[in-house]
């Protein structure tokens, strides 16, 4: 039994070394406390931890901020490869372009509620999207000029207009003081 544990520990140490090398982490990082890591370094360590034991599901909440472009691409490639190999990946992001580039399906949230869950292919054209907020996100993508979505007929027959192109931008809450004017 002791030999099996040592073999498992050796296998895990080798796997950690390989993952650390893949993400540009020095061996000394394994001995650091979380508060001693930079933001990007902490994200890389978390990615290594997520991939370490070949889980069935990885929940990746904003996995790329703090990473330089090559490491962000590597992380997303690794998550995609994990999913292609039969694992599940739940990618949580505010970056709709990122989600569309790596996901198979997208759940659109508005005010903490899923308003639409659809295939990525539905984002090819706004008429393929069922919810007005999803269509507003489509219009807000850079390749569509960050445009404000056109007015739509609401389900109740009244006009429903997208108030802002930015996801989640809803303007001031009723009764809130107006925002101060920017300095010029």
Using the CA coordinates, give the radius of gyration.
22 Å
Net shape: elongated
Number of strands: 6
- Report on the biggest sheet: 2 strands, parallel
| Gap from first CA to last CA | 72 Å
Mean pLDDT reading:
82
Strand content: 5-15%
Largest beta sheet: strand ordering: 1-2
Count helical runs.
Answer: 5
**Structural class, from secondary structure content?**
alpha+beta
Unreliable spans are: 153-177
- In helices, the fraction of residues equals 25-40%
What order do the SSEs take from the amino end to the carboxyl end, as H and E? HHEHEHEEHEE
What would a concise description of this structure say?
This protein is an alpha+beta fold and 184 residues long. The protein has helices at 2-22, 39-52, 69-84, 96-102, 132-140; strands at residues 57-61, 88-92, 105-110, 113-119, 152-153, 159-160.
């Amino acid at each position: 039994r002791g030999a099996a544990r040592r073999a498992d520990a050796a296998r895990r140490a080798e796997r950690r070394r390989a993952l650390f090398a893949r993400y540009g982490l020095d061996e000394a990082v394994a001995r650091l406390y979380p508060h001693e890591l930079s933001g990007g370094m902490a994200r890389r360590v978390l990615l290594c931890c997520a991939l370490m034991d070949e889980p069935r599901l990885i929940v990746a909440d904003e996995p790329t901020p703090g990473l330089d472009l090559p490491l962000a691409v590597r992380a997303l490639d690794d998550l995609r490869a994990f999913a292609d190999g039969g694992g599940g990946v739940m990618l949580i992001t505010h970056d709709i372009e990122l989600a569309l580039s790596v996901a198979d399906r997208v759940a659109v949230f508005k005010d903490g509620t899923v308003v639409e869950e659809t295939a990525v292919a539905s984002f090819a054209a706004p008429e393929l999207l069922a919810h007005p907020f999803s269509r507003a996100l489509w219009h807000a993508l850079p390749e569509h000029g960050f445009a404000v979505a056109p007015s739509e007929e609401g389900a109740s027959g009244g006009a429903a207009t997208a108030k802002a192109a930015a996801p989640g931008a809803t303007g001031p809450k009723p009764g809130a003081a107006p925002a101060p004017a920017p300095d010029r």
